[in-house]
User: Fold NAD(P)-dependent dehydrogenase (Short-subunit alcohol dehydrogenase family) from Plantactinospora soyae.
Amino acid sequence: MDDTKIALVTGANKGIGFEVARLLGRAGVTVLLGARDPGRGAEAAERLRADGLPATPVRLDVTDPASVTEAAKRIEDGYGRLDILVNNAGIMTGWGRPSELSVDDLRQAYETNVFGVVAVTNAMLPLLRRGSAARIVNVSSSMGSLTRMAAPESGIPMMTYSSSKAALNGLTVAYAAELREADIKVNSADPGYCATDLNQHTGPRDPADGAAVVVRLALLDPDGPSGTFEGDTGPVPW
Ligand SMILES: NC(=O)c1ccc[n+]([C@@H]2O[C@H](COP(=O)([O-])OP(=O)(O)OC[C@H]3O[C@@H](n4cnc5c(N)ncnc54)[C@H](OP(=O)(O)O)[C@@H]3O)[C@@H](O)[C@H]2O)c1
Assistant:
């Protein structure tokens, strides 16, 4: 088997996902850039290729089951396996106090941030099982830390986004437990508060800095951890 690693990054056409793709490319990984808009995906892949990095766009809307199936088939036909899956695609919706939010507000956030991750992970698992010591990284947030949400100084949590990321962390722990025997490590990453479209560029960090912890977990050594939640400086409290 060719030992060049193959990675799929969802929502890789911009922001932290794009920087994850760039860093993985620099580490010698062949990167498949998941993007729901084919034009934006092609443009992002072209930017990486212009820098000499091997990148290919894959149309992938994580909320669209047909698109997820099609992406898995394309990867199967083209590469036959996957070594790294970065579940990065995410949205921040549903502002307001918990009592002002509707079930639909939560459903919308969960469709992408939680259900989309399950759909993509389950579709890619047969390919990841064929990969060499595969890694799955779920891009979470410290806003999904229940410990931080419960701290009095945190005020009222942003219920839609925060609870969706707490649920995502639950997925990390569950998949890590199931996949331990398959030697597939599954971890949550907290990129920190980065300037991206998600937050109208209010974050103080560069998205490339946020991408670093994601890439570290994507390239973990065999003795690295699984079922953890990590940021730049180490573990983030659940
Ligand atoms: N920025 C921060 O401070 C911060 C902090 C902690 C965690 N995070 C997490 O980091 C991840 C990346 O966020 P970001 O800050 O880089 O935001 P961003 O710049 O808005 O990028 C989000 C990416 O997700 C894609 N996406 C959204 N819905 C999708 C769907 N249904 N299917 C496929 N792709 C979809 C977007 O595609 P389009 O271009 O088509 O919209 C875009 O590529 C998210 O999971 C976010 O929750 C961000």
